[in-house]
Specification:
Elements: H1 11-21, E1 25-27, H2 29-34, E2 41-44, H3 50-59, E3 62-64, H4 69-75, E4 83-86, H5 89-103
Parallel strand pairs: 2-3
Antiparallel strand pairs: 1-4, 2-4
Helix pairs in contact: 1-5
Length: 104
């Protein structure tokens, strides 16, 4: 998992875990495809297939991250996740801000 220089946990991955615990994520392409509610954004792993990246962008705003499937999966308590959709606007704002802060 990515770490800060001072060895703190990655703020984006931590916020992603909080969103999971709050029930505001849809994880995996099949579940996203079957979801009938609103999707705010889909975060895509850096090592997702070209097809997965294309499909994610067809559903809603897709954000390609620097994180691998294993890193995203670990943040939400599973082995790996190529795509994670967020259903809550508040968490979208938080996650995008943390992603921007950490990458700068």
């Amino acid at each position: 998992m990515n770490k800060h220089k001072n060895d703190e946990q990655d703020p984006f991955l931590t916020a992603l875990g909080l969103a999971k615990h709050a029930g505001k994520l849809i994880i995996g392409q099949d579940r996203i495809d079957d979801w009938s509610g609103g999707l705010q954004v889909i975060f895509v792993s850096s090592d997702a297939s070209a097809r997965t990246k294309k499909n994610a962008g067809m559903k809603t705003d897709a954000v390609l991250t620097k994180y691998t499937m294993a890193e995203l999966g670990h943040a939400v308590g599973i082995t790996k996740a190529a795509v994670i959709a967020v259903t809550d606007t508040g968490f979208v704002s938080l996650l995008k801000r943390k992603l921007t802060e950490y990458q700068s």
